[in-house]
Amino acid sequence: MASRARQLVEILSQSISDIEDFLKTQDAPDLSIEQDVPLSFHANPKFASTKDAALLACKELSTLLGGSFAAITNQTTSEFANTQAICRFKIPSSFPPDRDHATYDELAANSGLPEPEVRRLVRSTLPSYIFLEKETGIVTRTAASKLLAYNPLMVQWVEMTATEIMPATLKIADAMEKWPQSGEPHQTGYNLANNTEDSAFTHMAKFPGRPEQFAQAMSLFSMGPGYSPKWLLENYPWDSLETGTVVDVGGSKGEYGIAIARKYPQIKVVIQDLPDVIEKAQSSAPADLGDRVEFMAHDFLTDQPIKDADVYLMRWILHDWSDAYSIRILRALIPALRKGARIVLHEYIVPEPGKTLTLQDRTLRIFDTAVRALTNGKEREANDWKALFAEADSRFQILSIEKPPVSSLGIIVAQWEG
């Protein structure tokens, strides 16, 4: 018996053949992104049913290929609102022990919601394959609902996206009207959505649990294979530093700086971040690297205090900031730079249209929208990175801009020629 994926391919293939035959009988052009099928065709029962079969096959096949993570993250706003609700009321984890199927009455008893509410919420998620209802009244967990049941970080991501990012993104146009061309971190969709004059992270910090939820949710992405430190370790010539110092600017707990120090024993690493971050990071620092890993409180918007280091590393820093602030961050390095010092950025490199798979491009464009909504940040194309360094100072020379094949982040290397 053919696999479900192959069955879907066959359904899709037959449906497209039937649609193309129908269009020919109507002397209509082929399906095209640039021209719609005439609206009257959609009223034709044969065309409508065949089209629906093709779309449903595409949807299910996309879910099979994308997996549970994509099934949750690639939802419309209304779909996502229902997913937030099933998470809030713990419906994915309300199944009887050791069972992946349950009646609506069982889910209602375990979740505390009335049965009609449970039924309405669960059935709203069926088109997204969060649950299945193979038999009327019997709910079956899918890979997606199992992920929501057993992975608390995924649930945190759903809640954070629904409460922090989505309201902010829906206010982007309003922010653009109120603050034309602003790059200020406190003049964003987030500010309008939350009625605050504080920047997003300053505002979140006033509410217990919100910063932690945001950090935990974002850690879900950094746990993916494309965000592993190995891609930075293997695709920059750290071994060319016979001895030397690497400054991990905005390095948080030092996941990347520590990985560099551990793999390259000739390198000393200084991990910099704000005082409260550094205080927590020091408490969990590996004792065996104490002589080569140093923690330092530093605000990267102010002049860099470590002079004459070989490399200044910034991982996933500048995408949170507009061009004006990113230029300010780069210029703050200049007083410390010696000729030949390198700045290594580990950031997204948004591909130019038509230069990559549409799904990869779509994801990065979504991230660009999110950081714009939160902080007026920006995900940048290669030419944007070049322009940023050129505007910061003409003495920065771009050496390379590349993305390792499996890595989600690219590596931008610039050298100081001053």
From TrEMBL:
Presence of the UniProt keyword Transferase in the record: yes
Coiled coil feature spans: none
GO biological processes: methylation
O-methyltransferase C-terminal domain boundaries: 244-392
UniProt keyword annotations, A-Z: Methyltransferase, S-adenosyl-L-methionine, Transferase
UniProt keyword Repeat, yes or no: no
Superkingdom to which the source organism belongs: Eukaryota
A single MF term (Gene Ontology): O-methyltransferase activity
Protein's name according to its UniProt entry: S-adenosyl-L-methionine-dependent methyltransferase
Native species: Paraphaeosphaeria sporulosa
Lineage of origin: Eukaryota, Fungi, Dikarya, Ascomycota, Pezizomycotina
